[in-house]
Amino acid sequence: QVQVVESGGGSVQAGGSLRLSCAASGCTYNRMSWFRQAPGKERVFFSSIVREGSTFVADSVKGRFTISQDTAKNTAYLQMNSLKPEDTAMYYCKITCQSLQAYWGQGTQVTVSS
């Protein structure tokens, strides 16, 4: 059974930092992607990492967010610095397994107050 578990969300003041984790079990991921969904808005992709190490970070968060991974732990991380109120959202992790099946986590809430 494949499980995807995000953690690390919380409430911070603007300018603060959080580190999200996405731990996968039951499959070895090829790609791990981060999405976020603000209240009343669509879920938006903004960052990904492939097992070989290549990363992508959208311009909207580039310079503030960094994606990394520990392949031995089958876990990816999202370091979020200089957080802004507009970063407030539910953050979701999606993994693509070597079987090419994709799985979502349950999400972790990030709230940034001004």
Describe the structure.
The chain has 114 residues and is mostly beta strands. The protein contains no helices and eleven strands. The strands form two sheets. Strands 2, 4, 5, 6, 9, 10 and 11 form a seven-stranded mixed beta sheet that branches. Strands 1-3-8-7 form a four-stranded antiparallel beta sheet, with no helix packed on it. The termini are far apart. The mean pLDDT is 97.
Keywords summarizing the entry:
114 residues; mainly beta
Summarize the helices and strands and which ones pair or pack.
Blueprint: E1 3-7, E2 10-13, E3 18-25, E4 29-37, E5 43-50, E6 55-57, E7 65-70, E8 75-80, E9 89-97, E10 102-104, E11 108-113
Parallel strand pairs: 2-11
Antiparallel strand pairs: 1-3, 3-8, 4-5, 4-9, 5-6, 7-8, 9-10, 9-11
